[in-house]
């Protein structure tokens, strides 16, 4: 960064669906030097809209939100507004949350027990081109990289919970962070058809949203984090 960029406070948008948590984060950030909160969003759609309107430097992004979760919002922001970086700030540090967020383009990942100094360091790191990862997340990534690669299965796994092959395919694309429109393009079908498949697989599995679908795909072994 230039000296001017270092001197100028980082302009930050906070995205969290829980009002008390969101307001608490905004209040905390307001006490920190080097950060200026320019907006707050209650879900991923609002976060994307605020980024388009305000062009912040960084979004502090919760993952599990209604309408549009943090993974999809991150992917949209990085695709449509590459000048804005995303730092995940979430309660969850499991693989099913971590890896989809990083694949979607998040450059930082913190859990909500992070202190103010740690948040500032993460924001400064992503703005300087580095990764802003908490020590626990760094350890998890190193552990994952050191794990042996899983042996390939002898044959294709049977789709769980009575899912059809196409519903399973849609589930895997959701786990990769694709939107309904991108899934439709990938499968050469209409968006309405994709929505039908999603409704069917949600009904069969009891899932309620895309974040749960991602965790389900990992839990069933349909998707594995990269081993290296």
Taking the alpha carbons of the first and last residues, their distance comes to 30 Å
Q: What share of residues is helical? A: 40-55%
* Helix/strand class: alpha/beta
Shape: globular
Q: What is the CA-based Rg, rounded?
A: 18 Å
Number of helices: 11
- Give the overall average pLDDT: 85
How much of the sequence lies in strands comes to 5-15%
Identify the notable features of this structure and list them briefly.
alpha/beta, six-stranded parallel β-sheet, globular, disordered N terminus
Tell me what you see in this structure.
It contains 11 helices and 6 strands. By secondary structure, it is of the alpha/beta class. α5 links the parallel β4 and β5. It is globular, with a radius of gyration of 18 Å. The two termini are 30 Å apart. The relative contact order is 0.11.
Topology:
Elements: H1 3-7, E1 10-15, H2 19-30, E2 35-41, H3 44-54, E3 58-61, H4 70-80, E4 85-90, H5 95-104, E5 108-111, H6 116-127, E6 132-133, H7 135-146, H8 165-175, H9 180-187, H10 191-205, H11 210-219
Parallel strand pairs: 1-2, 1-3, 3-4, 4-5, 5-6
Helix pairs in contact: 3-4, 4-5, 5-11, 8-10, 8-11, 9-10
Brief rundown of the structure:
This protein is an alpha/beta fold.
């Amino acid at each position: 960064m230039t000296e001017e960029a270092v001197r100028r406070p980082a302009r930050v948008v906070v995205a969290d669906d829980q009002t008390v948590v969101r307001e608490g984060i905004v209040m905390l950030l307001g006490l920190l030097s080097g950060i200026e909160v320019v907006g707050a969003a209650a879900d991923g759609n609002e976060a994307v809209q605020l980024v388009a309107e305000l062009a912040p430097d960084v979004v502090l992004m919760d993952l599990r939100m209604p309408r549009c979760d943090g993974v999809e919002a991150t992917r949209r922001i990085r695709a449509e507004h590459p000048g804005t970086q995303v730092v995940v700030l979430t309660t969850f540090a499991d693989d099913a949350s971590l890896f989809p967020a990083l694949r979607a383009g998040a450059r930082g990942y913190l859990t909500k027990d992070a202190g103010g100094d740690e948040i500032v360091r993460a924001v400064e790191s992503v703005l300087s081109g580095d990764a802003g990862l908490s020590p626990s997340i760094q350890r998890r990534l190193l552990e994952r990289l050191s794990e042996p690669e899983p042996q390939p299965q002898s044959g294709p796994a049977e789709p769980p919970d009575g899912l059809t092959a196409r519903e399973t395919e849609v589930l895997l694309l959701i786990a990769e962070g694709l939107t309904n429109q991108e899934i439709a393009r990938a499968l050469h079908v209409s968006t309405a058809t994709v929505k039908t498949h999603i409704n069917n697989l949600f009904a069969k599995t009891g899932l309620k949203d895309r974040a749960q679908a991602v965790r389900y795909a990992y839990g069933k072994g349909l998707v594995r984090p990269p081993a290296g």
